[in-house]
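It would be a great kindness if you could assist me with a short task in structural biology. The matter concerns a single protein, recorded as an amino acid sequence and a row of backbone structure tokens. Kindly check, if you would, that the fold set down in the tokens agrees with what the sequence suggests. Thank you for your consideration; the sequence and its tokens are set out here:
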Amino acid sequence: MPATIQLIVGLGNPGSQYEGTRHNAGEDFVRELARVAGGTLKTESKYHGEVGEVFFAGHKIRLLIPNTFMNRSGKAVAALANFYKIDPAQILIAHDELDIAPGTARFKFDGGHGGHNGLRDIVPSLGNRKDFHRLRIGIGHPGSAKQVSNYVLSKANQADREAIAASIDEAIRALPLLLSGDAGKAMTQLHSFDGGDSSIESPQIKD
């Protein structure tokens, strides 16, 4: 059984020009969780990001939004995890996911980086440990690998924004089950939610 989650990280790119872009869906999740839990985030240079501490569903959780660019996310995660001696298995990383449609989110434990630049940097920063929790927030795929960079760095249309926001809300509702150690029930609850046209997942398209 994976260890109890102590740290939740929301991935994104820093700067106002990236606010609301698809690639910042993980950051959006952590900001919404902080709001729901009545917590605040403040910049801490030694952790290379915005950090906070909240009590949510009876659990004390540290929150982190790296202020590094996405491909340097591991710098912030490792700094905070090492300082507080948080094991990778006690970390939940929230990130955008191309291969899931907007309106759908998935909990996952362990696995590779799946081509995500944030996860790609985090794995080696944690001593090549991949056994951490992930919240995969669906943003859909543009249909061509050549369009991915512009797609993830642009803002979603209104329908997709609403669907992504709904999936974030549902992930927060399922989070107490994950925090209590019941990953199976958390996955079942979240995966049964259909906040968009998620009956068909976006195709996995490779270069």
